[in-house]
Structures are given as structure tokens and as C-alpha cells.
Amino acid sequence: MSVTALKPAELPGLGNFDDFARLCKALADDLRLEILRLLKAESFGVLEICRILDIRQSALSHHLKILANAGMVSTRREGNSIFYRRPLIRDTDPFDDFKNNLFANIDRLPLPDKVLKRIQLIQQERSQLSLNFFTRHADKFREKQGLVTEYSQYASSLEGLINDIGFESPPTVMEVGPGEGELLLKLANKFNKVIALDNSEEMLEKARNTIKGSAISHVEFIHGDTTVALSKDLHCDLMIFNMVLHHISSPAEVFRDAAKILNPGGVLLIVDLCGHDQDWVRDSCGDLWLGFDADDLVSWAVDAAMVEGQSLYLGLRNGFQIQVRLFINSKRPL
Q: With a cut of 50, which residues of the chain have pLDDT below it?
């Protein structure tokens, strides 16, 4: 019996010389390598990348097109803007080992100080936009949030998921951005050690009033963000971002901070919108991001050495979809 050998391009899971040549050509440029380094664990819009790298938009678009054609960057639309990030490399990628090793080596290269300062400035500008919104509209928070969703629409699913998390000992729970305190009150009734963290003093006061009204006294209120929590050497076993991540300037950095704040085996719980195209929420609700693709969260978790846990997806009647995601600090399994 004769056996017909398959050509490399016909073998399942294998690439071919043309694909590999295209990949190598895309990498044969120092600016394109710098772009990939910049996108290590953060996504940026075209104009933001132009500012950071001090490059004309036409030139940048040329380089981004080459990287995209080689599968080295992914895109997502945020209203009228296109944001770029590095792709999540899957095991089915025929060049997964090559790409993972490439990224590992690129990431050892330090970014110039001037680039780091420009990145920091862009993140500060994003944060200030969000903070300004909540400073102006704290008294209308529930009304603004209700334009998209209300806590009651997914409360039972979220609280059921929290109840199903098993802890080896009584946990410390931190909610970041507790809003008016609806979930925070539930957490305080269930757990003995609860921390409320919010960078908006106006919103923190609303959550504080909700807890005061219930005569609960074991919630610690802290004004600030995850960098403040790190500076105070705070740690917890469950960290919750309930419809907050789309207001944060650098979601990728949040995952990295969470990995440092969470105790070994601790759980990061993200409740947020799936990616959508409803640009009106920027002005009406103060959103910086139009939800998130599932791969975005997984990519940030992997970068922070977290592993994906249980996920729930809930459709709303107004067309939005909510994702409830668990990520476990992989220092030690729960």
C-alpha cells in the first residue's frame, strides 16, 4: 500500500513558508518591534500611539497594517476609534512557540523614559476624564447607570457565583468602585472583613451612607485606586470590579495590580459589558471603553499570571450583554 505524503500547508495546525516569511518580514523593522513592545499588556488608539512614539499617523498606519497582516496585532473598535493590542496566542497557532518566544524577548527591552512619560500622561488623561464625570454626576449615578443596566438585573447570578466560591478560611473581600453600595451591603452581610475602594470621594460617600444606614460597622472605606491599595500594602482573597472596568484608564494595569493585592489563590471577579458599539455611553455614562471582548480579559489575566475560572454571560433586553468572569491568582490553587 502506498502512502501519499501531505504537503506542510495541508497538515492540520501547520503554517507554510509564505506565512512564515510574511511574519519574519513584519518583524524586520525596529519601529514595528517598538510598537509590539509598547502593546505588551495595554491597548492604544492610533492617535495615542502617534503621540507616544512621536510618529506621523500615515507612517504608523503603514506599519500597523503590516503587523496586522502578519497576525501580530489585533484590533477592536471603540466608537470612531480603532484600538490596537497584541493578539492572544493560542495553541492552535502554527507559530505559537515562535511568537511567544519573540514576545518574551521583546519584553526584556526597556522602553525609553520619554516613551514611559508619554504613556503615563495618556493614562492620566483617561483617568481624569472618568473622575471628572463622577465628580459632576455623583448625585445622578443610579439614573446614569440605569441607561445601560441595573444591579437587580444580574444580582442573583452574581451573588450565586460569589456564594459558590470556596475559601479555606474566612476571606477578606475588596470591592473597587462600589457605586452606591448595593453589592457592598450584600458583601458586608456575608463577610466579616470588607474593604471599599473608590477614587471618587463623592461616590465613596454614597457607599458609606448606604452602609451606615444598615448599622454595619466592619467595612473599611479607602479613597483611591489599586495603586493606593498597593501603597497601603492591602491584601484580600476576593477582589470585585462590578461594572467598573470600563471606567478605568488601564484595565491591563488593574489585572497586574490585582495579582499583587490578592493573596495566593485569591479570586478576581469582573462584572462588565461585553464589547458593543453604543458610543453614546461615553457622554451619557462616562465610559472610557465600550465593553470588552472575552480575549481582552483573558490576555490581561495571562499577563498577570492568573488563570481563567468560571464565566457567565447574561443578555439584557436593551441589547447589551454582561459578562461575569472569575480569574484566580495562580500562585497557589484555591
A: 1-12, 332-334
